[in-house]
Design a protein that fits this description.
With 433 residues, the chain is an alpha+beta fold. It has ten helices and 25 strands. Helix 8 (345-354) crosses helix 10 (398-407).
């Protein structure tokens, strides 16, 4: 007689702990670590306008005195980068603000003090009481890889602590701001969503490093976001803290684009041609001649003027720069040490390439001499004419000319607005012989 036995099998199903769950991806772990260092910024602007109406326009003598005060608010993001309360954000987020409020991830709000800002790099620094608060230092190495995962954290459209994920799409992008027309030459590009309000927020990699400061520079872009790389941010922060302004790097080279026909005839790659070498500059000391072609700088190809501008944007006075140069079919490597632009570079550029000598009179920049046969002479300029603007900026003295040209000496031309009597003329002049 057979005996049958029954067995009961009990399956034990265990739920993994949160710490062991596959849901805790590297992205989740990075966000948990870095999000407390990203803050919400509210900048309040105050605008005073004179009361106007149709009656006021028709009968201004009867218009009542007084003005109306309007306030507006802009929202943005920032990143606490040091234990002493330094916050980095975009300059356009806090521009013209009478009051800036910082809201931390835990809900606490404090008022911020503006340390300094730089419109040319669209960066600003604030300071807040931050004892014991988490902070996120800038990445030490500039080694971000195209295609690697990056995370954008900020406050788009006022939605606090929003996280978006994408990849690093490109490096060293040249972007023109639609609103200010300023040109930025070394942006990181990502497909992580960056919308208005994200400006000033953090772009981090999967190691939790702060590799860039986000900027919503193109508001209607889809899948295209930009960030200022950490290397540039660190340089701006250090310069603003030490000097009160960002110091431009100077090699003493004026460059121009190369024609495709010339390259094909010579059998050479792309690059930029040395149009002129400033006397007693680093390039002059290294024996770099006119006509030489710059093929690469610090190991990165130079395919056009934007690449050369990016190279200078990434170095500071005192840094070594290695150039790969082609001269008459042969190649060599030239090592230079960048310096600061000459204090009178703007005056020298106007004399060298435009053909005018200027001076300051009664808070105006006045042309005192026009070189016969120069471009200025051909354009009809004369002594007594007033230079009103340089490269789109109003000027009031020669120091303004030197500052603007020193900062933008990598441009292909200098744009002047010259006044004569009631008329003003906009005139471009090439910055090459």
């Amino acid at each position: 007689m057979r005996r049958f036995y029954t067995a009961t099998v009990v399956l034990l199903v265990t739920t993994p702990s949160v710490a062991q769950s596959m849901r805790r991806t590297p992205v989740v772990q990075v966000v948990e670590k870095v999000r407390p260092a990203v803050v919400n910024l509210t900048a309040r602007q105050v605008v005073t306008l004179r009361r106007r109406s149709l009656f006021d326009d028709l009968f201004p003598e009867f218009a009542p005195p007084g003005s109306e005060v309007y306030t507006s608010q802009s929202l943005g993001s920032g990143v606490l980068i040091s234990p002493d309360g330094v916050i980095v954000t975009n300059e356009h987020v806090i521009e013209g603000a009478a009051e800036i409020k910082v809201r931390f991830a835990d809900g606490k709000s404090v008022e911020a003090e503006v340390i300094d800002s730089d419109a040319d790099t669209d960066l600003a620094m604030l300071r807040v009481p931050a004892k014991g608060r988490p902070f996120l230092p800038l990445a030490d190495q500039d080694d971000s890889m195209i295609g690697e995962t990056v995370i954008a954290i900020g406050n788009p459209l006022g939605l606090e602590s929003t996280v978006t994920v994408g990849v690093l799409s490109a490096r060293d992008r040249t972007v023109t701001s639609p609103s200010t027309r300023r040109v930025y030459t070394d942006f990181l590009q990502t497909d992580a969503s960056i919308n208005p309000g994200n400006s000033g927020g953090a772009l981090v990699d999967l190691d939790g490093r702060l590799v860039g400061i986000n900027t919503a520079i193109i508001g209607d872009a889809q899948g295209i976001g930009f960030a200022i790389p950490a290397k540039r941010v660190r340089r701006v922060v250090n310069d603003l803290l030490r000097y009160g302004h960002v110091q431009a790097a100077w090699l003493g080279i004026f460059v121009k684009a190369r024609g495709e026909t010339t390259r094909k005839v010579r059998g050479e790659n792309e690059g930029v041609e040395v149009a002129d070498v400033y006397p007693e500059s680093p390039a002059a000391a290294a024996g770099l001649p006119r006509g030489a072609v710059l093929q690469a700088g610090n190991g990165r190809p130079i395919t056009g003027r934007d690449d050369y501008a990016t190279l200078l944007a990434q170095v500071a006075p005192g840094d070594r720069v290695t150039l790969e140069v082609t001269e008459r079919g042969s190649s060599r490597v030239v090592e230079l040490r960048a310096t600061r632009p000459p204090a009178d570079l703007g005056e020298q550029v106007l004399l060298r390439f435009v053909g005018v000598k200027v001076t300051t009179r009664a808070k105006q920049v006045v042309i005192t001499r026009v070189v016969p046969g120069s471009r200025a002479d051909e354009a009809g300029l004369a002594a007594g004419d007033v230079v009103l603007q340089v490269n789109g900026e109003r000027i009031g003295n020669v120091e303004d000319v030197n500052r603007i040209v020193g900062r933008e000496h990598t441009r292909s031309s200098v744009m002047l607005v010259v006044g004569r009597g009631p008329f003003a003329y906009q005139l471009p002049f090439s910055m090459s012989p």
